[in-house]
UniProtKB/TrEMBL annotation:
Similarity remark: Belongs to the avfA family.
InterPro entries: NAD(P)-bd_dom (IPR016040), NAD(P)-bd_dom_sf (IPR036291), Polyketide_Oxido-like (IPR051606)
Domain NAD(P)-binding: 7-213
Source species, domain of life: Eukaryota
Protein name: NAD-P-binding protein
MF term (GO), any: oxidoreductase activity, acting on the CH-NH group of donors, NAD or NADP as acceptor
Organism annotation: Mycena metata
One Pfam family cited in the UniProt record for this chain: NAD_binding_10
Length: 234
């Protein structure tokens, strides 16, 4: 498999890259599209299965070249609340997604897994107080970032006829990146379904996402990933 990963220098992106290389070992190629190649961790930069392409998200020529012969795309791009009220008033990340999807269609790549947050809603969701509180708190602190996140959800969902997409909504992630995957179970579901909650293992999420590349159990769906609730069924 040849995978193109965006956001591969962030905490989640690095875990996804390492998990992909571990699962597929010598039978894969991982293409990292990054703004600054110097930020790629040394173990990934020196791996012979990794191709690093340095480019901007508004460079259609570079995006098209990166997409060549790719089987699937994972995007770990997304707005954060770090800039708070100073986040740009437009939707820059959603615009980048549009360009990425144009490049995918130009190279006949259908499979897309996009990471987002529970700010994106789904018809299958029900009321869940902790997640509603987090959603409202984030919207109050960083309204423009939430606007961009919601725009990402809309532009990805609009591609159902042409792309096999999955929108993965990550709950609040644990910060320990050295967790043993065997102890980092995550479940996929919807808000208020009695199985999901407000916390997710970053390592467990990476394992789930890489497995979903071939399992394809969540095509055209928008699950929340979280640690299982105490009363969830096995």
């Amino acid at each position: 498999m040849r995978l193109l990963l965006f956001g591969g220098t962030g905490a989640m992106g690095v875990l996804l890259a390492r998990e992909f290389l571990w699962v597929y070992k010598n039978s894969s190629t991982l293409v990292l599209y990054v703004r600054n190649a110097a930020k790629v961790p040394e173990d990934l930069a020196q791996d012979r299965s990794v191709v690093i392409i340095q480019g901007e998200l508004d460079d259609m020529d570079s995006l098209s070249k990166a997409m060549h012969r790719v089987d699937a795309v994972i995007t770990a791009l997304g707005p954060t609340g770090r800039k708070g009220p100073f986040y740009p008033s437009g939707t820059p990340v959603a615009a980048a997604y549009i360009r990425i999807m144009v490049a995918m269609k130009g190279q006949s790549v259908r499979r897309l897994i996009a990471l987002t947050t529970p700010s994106v809603r789904d018809p299958e969701d029900h009321f869940n107080l902790p997640l509603v509180f987090l959603r409202k708190a984030f919207a109050a602190v960083a309204p423009n970032a939430v606007k961009d996140i919601l725009a990402i959800g809309r532009v990805v969902r609009a591609q159902r006829a042409e792309l096999d997409w999955t929108l993965i909504r990550l709950a609040v992630q644990t910060s320990n990146d050295d967790e043993d995957p065997a102890n980092c179970e995550v479940v996929a579901g919807y808000m208020g379904d009695g199985r999901t909650n407000a916390v997710s293992s970053r390592v467990g999420a990476a394992v789930f996402i890489i497995e979903e590349l071939e399992k394809r159990e969540w095509i055209w769906k928008c699950p929340i990933l979280s640690t299982p609730t105490r009363n969830s069924n096995p």
